[in-house]
Amino acid sequence: MRRIPLFLYLGLLASALTPAALRAAAPTALGVFDGWGAFRESETPRCYALSKPAATIGSRSEQAFASIGFWPRARIRGQFYVRLSKPRRADSELRLSIGARRFILTGQGVHGWARDQRMDAAIIAAMRSAPSMSIEGRGAEGGAIADTYRLRGAATAIDAAALGCARLR
């Protein structure tokens, strides 16, 4: 499985969240499961499970979200990505905590993702059995970044996104 280049993933994901893009080619909702939604974009094609944080420390400067993406043409299945509520300091470690599991994410600015496919799989497995996850780091302005997500409905949304793209190529 190949990983999609980050700039392409972020550009497409950001365009999917802008009002103009939503009017032009709105993603198909595959379902909303508690705080998580599953969506399919047939033009790209891609599917993803998406949620916004339930809680954030301090004021946020960005529209934060976490997602699990599926890109059939690129043979990408289950790629974790998070957009932080504010940019992080370049030398700051970005930690994802899910239950008893801890992951050190890679990325820069407001972007974070798993280092490799193995970490993606471990994150999804942890998400399936925990009530919440949090992403923590040090902000570019020196304050803390702490975005917390409820995971109720995440497993169902991830499965719906995977099934939504199962036959797309």
Can you give a write-up of this model?
The protein has 169 residues and is an alpha+beta fold. The protein has one domain: Immunoglobulin-like (Sandwich). The protein is 24% helix and 37% strand. The strands form two sheets. It has a six-stranded antiparallel sheet with strand order 1-2-3-5-6-9. It has a five-stranded antiparallel sheet with strand order 4-11-10-7-8, covered by helices on one side. Strand 7 and strand 8 form a beta hairpin. The longest helix is centred in the first third of the chain and has 12 residues, at 6-17. The chain is globular. The two termini are 14 Å apart.
The total count of strands amounts to: 11
Helices, by number, come to 4
Return residue spans where pLDDT drops below 50 for at least 5 consecutive residues. 1-12
Indicate the proportion of strand residues.
35-45%
- The CATH superfamily label reads Invasion associated locus B (IalB) protein
Structural class: alpha+beta
CATH architecture name: Sandwich
Give the helices and strands as they follow along the chain: HHEEEEEEEEEHEEH
Counted up, domains total 1
Major β-sheet profile: 6 strands, antiparallel
Task: Just give the CATH class.
Answer: Mainly Beta
Strand order of the largest sheet: 1-2-3-5-6-9
Mean pLDDT rating: 86
CATH topology: Immunoglobulin-like
Residue share in helix: 10-25%
Radius of gyration: 15 Å
